[in-house]
Amino acid sequence: MPVLDDIAPQLAAQAIELPSWAFGNSGTRFKVFSTPGTPRTIQEKIADAATVHRFTGLAPTVALHIPWDQVDDYAALARYASDQGVALGTINSNTFQDEDYKFGSLTHSDPTIRRKAVDHHLRCLEIMAATGSRDLKIWLADGSNYAGQQDMRGRQDRLAESLAEIYAQVGAEQRLVLEYKFFEPAFYHTDVPDWGTACAQVTALGERALVCLDTGHHAPGTNIEFIVMQLLRLGKLGSFDFNSRNYADDDLIVGAADPFQLFRIMVEVVRGGALDPASSVAFMLDQCHNVEEKIPGQIRSVLNVQEMTARALLLDRAALTAAQEAGDVLGAHQVLMDAFYTDVRPALAAWRESRGLPAEPMAAYAASGHQQRLAAERIGGTQASWAS
Ligand code: PSV
Ligand code: MN
Ligand code: MN
After folding, report:
1. With CB atoms counted within 10 Å of each terminal CB, which end of the chain scores lower, N or C?
2. Which atom of ligand 1 is nearest to the CA of 139?
3. ipTM value > 0.90
4. Which atom from ligand 1 is nearest to the alpha carbon of 141?
């Protein structure tokens, strides 16, 4: 079995993008709770993301959601981020909070609504030019609640046309990533419900159109690591939205509900070459912190990804292959479980310290007094979806 020194280069290269909205107050339809020190502006959200990066060395970029993170001058925002020690990353479009999109956006039967939705994405591409972002991420709430309510076939065709119009404007160094989700807010059919639909739609567009896999967007019991394997095998995995779930799209801290699932996903990530230097797969969090503090919530999250990545990298691949090929069912399973049960935390703490990072980022942040300073300085933090 490899040791931590063997996998240090891959760990050193690991980068996990943070979502701006993770730093805002969020909740359920029952109540949005606030936490002291919550950011009031997108600049403060970026500053908080930079704090997570300072304590972990793992989170060099921040994703924006448009129009939640709307500003007049995106180039200035990118400079602000750079001054804080991070860069702006993925631009997420938003066509789900406007009355006009009640019956769909890119799939709508009314050409004027489709035009508005396509134009929003073209605006996102302009923003990407100013922020230097590579990825446009599209998640659509489009769907219907009742059988017969909508013509699913017509909507799929219109989706293809709308995406083609957007893709035509995606720059040579940019990418379009399409995120699927099996239900919610639509409860009967969703226009991009699964990886197969997303993959079919992006494959029709071209090479720089890829799929985003949000770990919370599958039916219970789905073998998500199989989907990871298949999309990597097809060269169509663009990015991850990491989070964990017990029931639906819970958006809880990644690796909290099912650490073993995160490990199995990372094993396929490693197997599929997605940690190799040449890989362009983006690793992002898509989480909300409803009751816990946000900065430590994000620190915990990136550390969870790092720990499961280390365990996956420690998997003795040669021993696994030998057992698999010998038909040694329990032997193969044990090789996998040996890696999963390896406690990498002490070795990772020492390794972080050797790189000038806190050995224990959670404890270091708690001891820093930063949270108390923010609570004293910031009064009236915003809700995640009302940013800036
Ligand atoms: C939809 O559930 C989603 O996962 C998409 O990624 C959105 O952009 C994000 O959540 C924020 O609500
Ligand atoms: Mn998502
Ligand atoms: Mn989601």
Report:
1. N
2. 5
3. yes
4. 1
